[in-house]
Amino acid sequence: MVRTGGGLLVSLAVIVGGILLASLRVNLYFYFAGYVVLQYVVVATAWNILGGYAGYVNFGTSAFFALGAYTAIFLIEAFRAPLPVLILAGGLVSGLLGLGIGYLTLRLKGVFFSIATLALSVVLQTLIMNWDYVGGAKGVTVIRPGSPLFGNWVRLLFTVMVGLAVAAVTVAWIIERSWVGRGLRALRDSEEAAECMGVPTLRLKLFATTISGFLLGVAGAPFPYYVTYVEPSSAFNLDYAVNALAMPMIGGTTTWIGPVIGAVLLGTAQQVATVTISSELNLLIVGVVLVAFVVLAPEGIVGLVRRPRGR
Amino acid sequence: MASRIVVHNVDAGYGAVRVLHRLSIEVREGETVALLGTNGNGKSTLIKCIMGIVRPEAGEVLLESDGARIDLTKRSTEEIVGLGIAMVPEGRRLFPKLTVEENLLLGAYRPGARGDITRNLAFCFEAFPVLRARRTQLAGSMSGGEQQMLAVARALMSSPRVLLVDEPSVGLAPILVSRVIAKIKELKDRHHLTVLMAEQNFNQATKIADRAYIIVHGKIEFEGQSMQELRGNELVKKYYMGL
């Protein structure tokens, strides 16, 4: 209970810190860049619940992210829905997609599951490109409503993303410590053994795909207000799929802190590189770092820190 | 609390391959029954049928408990574990990258067993002191004998009444086989378990079994009501004693 209370305090402190940061009058670009890093904390944490805890590698992260973004666009176009509704709806629709994908790919294991999720991204992108109501292939311009909190949309979105990141990490933290987390670890290690022990593998898998999809949708929902112009190739960008996988692997996939470390390090490095070198260099950085970690530290930074103590 | 398992005229297999042909066996309360047969005759398939991992194409698998007849072919593995049947799978099927303790806790996954975790864990550590010493070690890093002990202990974590043991001797040195078999007997007596044990090793299995079935090509070829009867049987001489 002490640890739970401690975790709650840390979460609150992070949110309050975020609000204080947002009220500082520093250059707006820092909030702009900070938003992206925090968004990747949510994306990496969400990916890790399925890919890290349960061992099902999802290459279709962009599909879930973009579905959250396009759900928001639809609700803005149709009802001018407020931001909290967009986030909740984006999460629900992507969570539903996660549940559906879970059902459809039940028999697929290992690399075959990954291929199916990659295909999902392509199919969904094609559908969106042909749906004119949300902009189709030419994209859509989103107009931000006037006078937001903190006096500025970038500051507001930054604060919202702080809250979402804390929420996502808390969900991962709770799962990790519960019987669900234990069951997912069993699934990752040996699905066959888990079945022999009466671990409900099917339900656990569906739970993981749904929660993971929900959080990815949540991360994507504020995206239209952040960029104000959304087209399929930016919402379905391969960057999301690659980063979602690389960040937890660099940080460490077995605990909640791994994706956070990976997202902060890699996300920040990418933002710095975008400003100082070029935006095209981002994926190269990810690729090089990922290869280095897979070869030298397959258990990520968390594994590197733990190893000397554990043995 | 009398409970017995009845397998009646079961056909089962994998896709187009039929492994079991109208097979019937019965395991009564408190018995240790050995299922003897060489590789590929259907021992594991039969155990998987009882656990709901392989679905029979025809026939019945029943758990008769306190006058109630429960059709196991319609239950999920999770529910079957919940009914008090646990399995020690062939080749142990541990979680190699999880610790010994996590392996044990996963044996108690069903909600009904979670309340007894402290007691069951204490019992497992008492019965297998080596597991206590290695509780934070990864299961895959232990020796074969220790892993087999862990597989048995993990099954006991679900507080079972019926224990299905699939080939406990596989991959173990003869001295370890004796130890594992003796341990199963000890646990059976202390917990009043009903045990069905599939085994190729005739001499080891008959040390602790009350009765035995010999399974050949998915059919029961002989049913021995006692070990003397079994040792005198022509089939046993042919398959196990090279006579």
Task: List strands and helices in order, with pairings.
The complex is a heterodimer of chains A (311) and B (243).
Chain A: H1 2-23, H2 28-53, H3 61-79, H4 83-104, H5 111-129, E1 140-141, H6 153-177, H7 179-189, H8 191-196, H9 201-220, H10 223-227, E2 229-230, H11 232-235, H12 238-251, H13 257-276, H14 282-296, H15 300-310
Antiparallel strand pairs in A: 1-2
Chain B: E1 3-14, E2 17-27, E3 32-36, H1 43-51, E4 58-65, E5 68-71, H2 77-82, E6 85-88, H3 100-107, H4 111-114, H5 117-127, H6 129-133, H7 144-156, E7 162-166, H8 174-191, E8 194-199, H9 202-208, E9 211-216, E10 219-224, H10 227-231, H11 234-240
Parallel strand pairs in B: 3-8, 3-9, 6-7, 7-8
Antiparallel strand pairs in B: 1-2, 1-4, 4-5, 9-10
Helix pairs in contact in B: 3-7, 7-8, 8-9
3D structure, described in words:
The complex is a heterodimer of chains A (311) and B (243). Chain A contains 15 helices and two strands. Chain A has 311 residues and is an all-alpha fold. Chain A has one domain. In chain A, strands 1-2 form a two-stranded antiparallel sheet. In chain A, helix 2 crosses helix 13. With 243 residues, chain B is an alpha/beta fold. Chain B has a single domain, classed as 3-Layer(aba) Sandwich (Rossmann fold). Chain B has eleven helices and ten strands. A six-stranded mixed β-sheet of chain B has the order 6-7-8-3-9-10, with helices on both faces. In chain B, strand 7, helix 8 and strand 8 form a beta-alpha-beta unit. In chain B, helix 8 runs parallel beside helix 9. The longest helix of chain B is centred in the last third of the chain and has 18 residues. Chain B is globular. The mean pLDDT of chain B is 89. At the A-B interface, helix 7 and helix 8 of A face helix 2 and helix 3 of B.
